[in-house]
Write a structure and sequence with these properties.
351 residues; alpha/beta; 12 strands; 17% strand; binds iron/sulfur cluster
């Protein structure tokens, strides 16, 4: 495919971009959403995400900020309209704001409808204002507990006050914040209602996520896994949950909690498969594109980027990736001492 100088986004919007050009998989799903991991490093060590002593990638394997920008541009030119920057912790990547600024420049006529990020909020005091000025409107903050000691046990770092200050800074800067919490058996299980009250009381939506079997960690996931069907039953015993007909093309199903007057999302990769409307792809910080969170199959975009004809090679690689996107994933956390469904950690693929 020939390199393009101008974004064909408007052609995608008008439906006249050919099927060959728009990123469409073999099941007819159009890919409009990219989750881009900019680093595998993190300043926390959440027990369900990483092992305590992680070996991080050597710098030469990680895409430069320029390469990340080129790659994002190739996706935008193929019809991607939303980019979520993630990691590892995206805000610990040096000079990450320069990438945010450049991608922010593609919002609007540049082809992008939304630029956003998922963060643990430890660095938000420093960056919230810049993010807002570069065009970010909404962010997801991952926070699993409001208890200082539990936070330290869970993340192996003492940082809750920094996280809460980060959330304050984001709201003060005018960013809309959504709180994501992984539901963990016996860890934050009893605290989830008060966290929901806290989030809704501050005007923040909240989403609960089931833990997924990604990467080797110290603990057995059977001990962590808390089905959201169970959480929902417990919440319904105390609150009225009204199902909302709200779909974002993503895996979450939403309910309104009448008593707290807020929206609660439920992401259930284990108890309920949500792949039918999948519109997303994930790219690691080494430029490997994973067509599905629950599969190991990938296509190397870094070799394309660093080769002689990067744009042509990139587009060819994206076409190959489309042919490989599987119909669905199938996670299972029922057997003790099982090997993870996929060996890579979430911090590698990006959440
Ligand atoms: N560091 C950032 C953060 O925590 O928001 C971004 C990356 S983190 C990998 C993205 C999301 O993945 C977080 O919400 C985290 O809770 C979630 N996550 C990590 N490992 C997970 C697992 N095994 N199962 C379910 N969610 C996981
Ligand atoms: Fe870091 Fe996010 Fe993984 Fe926690 S969930 S260890 S904050 S990458």
């Amino acid at each position: 495919m020939a390199p393009r100088s101008a974004s064909p986004y408007n052609k995608v919007a008008r439906g006249i971009l050919s099927d060959m050009t728009a990123l469409t998989d073999t099941f007819g799903r159009q890919i409009t959403y990219l989750r881009l991991s900019v680093t595998d490093r993190c300043d926390l060590r959440c027990a369900y995400c990483m092992s305590e002593h992680m070996t991080f990638l050597p710098k030469r394997d990680v895409l430069s900020l320029e390469e990340l920008e080129t790659l994002s541009g190739a996706f935008i030119d193929r019809g991607v309209r939303k980019i979520r920057i993630t990691g590892g912790e995206p805000l610990v990547r040096r000079d990450i704001m320069s990438l945010m600024e450049r991608l922010g420049g593609r919002l609007g006529d540049g082809g992008l409808d939304e630029l956003t990020l998922t963060t643990n909020a430890t660095q938000l005091v420093r960056f919230a204002g810049d993010l807002k000025s570069f065009g970010v409107r909404r962010i997801n903050v991952s926070l699993d507990t409001l208890d200082d000691e539990k936070f330290e046990r869970l993340t192996r770092r003492r940082a809750l006050s920094r996280v809460l200050a980060g959330i304050d800074a984001a709201q003060a800067a005018g960013l809309k914040v959504k709180i994501n919490a992984v539901a963990l058996k016996g860890v934050n299980q009893d605290e989830l209602p008060s966290m929901i009250e806290w989030a809704h009381g501050r005007g923040m939506d909240m989403t609960l996520i089931e833990v997924m079997p990604l990467g080797e960690i110290e603990e057995d996931r059977v001990d962590q896994y808390l089905p959201l069907t169970e959480v929902r039953d417990a919440l319904e015993a105390q609150w009225t949950l009204t199902p909302l007909d709200m779909r974002t093309g993503g895996p979450a199903r939403y309910v309104r909690v009448e008593e707290t007057d807020g929206t609660l999302g439920l992401i259930t990769p284990l108890t309920n498969n949500f792949c039918d409307g999948c519109n997303r792809m994930r790219v690691t910080c080494t430029g490997r594109i994973y067509m599905c969170l629950g599969h190991t199959d990938s296509v190397d975009l870094r070799a394309a980027l660093r080769g002689p004809q990067p744009m042509k090679a990139l587009n060819d690689a994206l076409d190959r990736a489309m042919l490989k996107k599987p119909e669905r994933h199938n996670f299972d956390i029922s057997t003790r001492n099982a090997t993870p469904a996929v060996p890579r950690h979430m911090s590698m693929t990006g959440g």
